Amino acid sequence: MSNNSAEYPTPDLADVELVDVLRALGDPIRLQMLRVLADGVPHSKSMQEWGFDVQKSTMSHHFRTMREAGLTETIVDGRSHAIRLRREALDARFPGLIESLLASAVSGR
């Protein structure tokens, strides 16, 4: 199992700006993805896992947008691909941000 393969580069969070993270989470689907990923475990990139009524290409776009914003990393295990929230690194770079976003997403604010 490998993290962050050359096929799925993940930016160094020192190079990621807050506006990049907020822009990535400005889409309701990606905000919902954040809520799912907040459990800390890797989630398969299969369409069935997510249950959104969108095309596969649209989900690929959402996965890429979150990865390029530094929010997630891709884990490759053979032909299986999963994503995981980079929670610890994000909390270190932007203290309290993820918790605040999750709290506001739950409360609907």
Automatic annotation (TrEMBL):
Stored Gene3D superfamilies: Winged helix-like DNA-binding domain superfamily/Winged helix DNA-binding domain (1.10.10.10)
Database matches in InterPro entries: ArsR-like_HTH, HTH_ArsR_DNA-bd_dom, HTH_MetalResp_TranReg, WH-like_DNA-bd_sf, WH_DNA-bd_sf
Span of domain HTH arsR-type: 10-109
Molecular function terms from GO: DNA binding; DNA-binding transcription factor activity
CDD domains: HTH_ARSR
Keywords in alphabetical order: DNA-binding, Transcription, Transcription regulation
Name the record gives this protein: ArsR family transcriptional regulator
Annotated organism of origin: Amnibacterium kyonggiense
